[in-house]
Design brief:
Elements: H1 3-7, E1 11-17, E2 31-36, E3 39-43, H2 49-55, E4 63-67, H3 73-76, H4 79-88, E5 95-99, H5 103-113, E6 122-126, E7 132-135, E8 139-145, E9 153-159, H6 168-173, H7 180-186, E10 191-192, E11 198-199, H8 201-204, E12 213-216, H9 224-229, E13 235-239, H10 247-253, H11 258-268, E14 272-276, H12 286-293, E15 299-301, E16 307-309
Parallel strand pairs: 3-4, 4-5, 5-6, 12-13, 13-14, 14-15
Antiparallel strand pairs: 1-2, 1-16, 2-3, 7-8, 8-9, 9-12, 10-11
Helix pairs in contact: 11-12
Length: 319
Amino acid sequence: MSRRQAQGHQMTIHFLGTSGSWPTADRNVSATAIKRGGEVLLFDCGEGTQRQFQRSELSHMAVTKIFLTHFHGDHCYGLPGYLKTMQLNERTVPLDIFGPPGIERLIQDFQRIAPTRPEFPIRVHPMEPGKTIRFSEGYSVTAARADHSVINFAYAIEEEPRPGRFDKPKALALGVPEGRMFGKLQSGHSVQLEDGRTIHPEDVLGPDRRGRKVVISGDTRPSDAIARLAEGADILIHEATYLDEHQEQAEENQHSTAREAGEVAKKAGVRALWLHHFSPRYTTADGHLREAWEVFRETHVARDFSTVDVALPDNGDDE
């Protein structure tokens, strides 16, 4: 896959569950999917996630990779049912599952408690803080240690750089005919002209342009590690379990307030902040939005089945 093809995919975030601890009448527990081209990446899988897929625009069979932030039930107890749903739908393609150390044991225990014999391969990958995995689809995922009562990883999904802007007048001046050769140069391949000269991509392309970057916090207190991970991200999805009035509980239970999430977003210099993982004690998230706005104006509240299109960064020279 060429870099240009890899960067041509639409990227959309689907919030499938935005409640913390337990479901409410309006919110299911944690699950966030990122659809990029034909594949779906699932971050956390709280109980009932397979039903949330049925109510969404997504196909649960399109999920290629699952990333668990940590092993609290509202983030992973939906996995046995989800795997069973895939089995019953006769999935055959492999599924990769990533998570903190102990992820292999967790999957083994789930399969022992609720025996399944899926026909598709399940490949389990323990992550470590600072570990980056690069995928052939044109992006990488990096883990960072968050600050919670158990080991919790935040994840950054970052696309490879895009080729620079194509300089058509320069290409024509060099004698490159319009058509197929233009496309090859834009895709990063050299071309040979009829007179024997070789034109290289760097002869007609500007500097590389960065791809998109999305960061998901998992459960955490405000964390410098997450701020570093999210530096310059297009979107930071950060937990906002509590309001200021429950600051003491936030510290005791190692969660964040909405205001604290806004402070992390401001420190990281992200383009937009999306709050989720709200305590069931709150019937609305209006207060969360108000408190985060006081710190970081580009704040939004996630609701179950909210979708967010992640635009390619505007570097001032996009075609």
